[in-house]
């Protein structure tokens, strides 16, 4: 299920006297991965690279989880055999 993600407004810290930085370029989690806010081409490229890095990390974590489950199953089988 896709959720409607909204980019929160960025506000300066109270009393800081500075203006807020615009939000970083964030890609929406839809099939087209459209930017949620107006981005420069460089910001969009960086956002796509961050997303790809996160996807690769998730893939590696899923593989680690599968190995852990396999080892746990093997340990449970050995414990049952005792």
Helix fraction bin: 40-55%
Report the end-to-end length measured between terminal Cα atoms: 45 Å
pLDDT < 50 stretches: 1-5
- Report mean pLDDT, rounded to a whole number: 78
How many domains is the backbone divided into?
A: 1
Radius of gyration: 21 Å
Order of helices and strands: H
Q: How much of the polypeptide forms β-strand, as a percent range?
A: under 5%
Annotation keywords:
50% helix; 0% strand; coiled coil; 82 residues; rod-shaped
SSE layout and pairing:
Elements: H1 41-81
How does this model look, in words?
The protein has 82 residues and is mainly alpha-helical. It has one domain. Helices cover 50% and strands 0% of the residues. The chain has one helix at 41-81. The longest helix has 41 residues, at 41-81. It is rod-shaped and about 65 Å long. The N and C termini lie far apart (45 Å). Mean pLDDT is 78; it is low at 1-5. Residues 1-23 are annotated as: Disordered. Residues 44-78 form a coiled coil. Keywords: Coiled coil.
């Amino acid at each position: 299920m896709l959720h409607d993600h909204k980019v929160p407004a960025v506000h300066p810290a109270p009393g800081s006297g500075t203006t807020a930085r615009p939000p970083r370029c964030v890609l929406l989690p839809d099939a087209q991965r459209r930017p949620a806010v107006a981005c420069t081409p460089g910001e969009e490229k960086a956002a796509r690279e961050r997303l790809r890095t996160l996807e690769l990390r998730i893939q590696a974590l899923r593989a680690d989880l599968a190995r852990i489950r396999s080892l746990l199953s093997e340990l449970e089988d050995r414990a049952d055999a005792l």
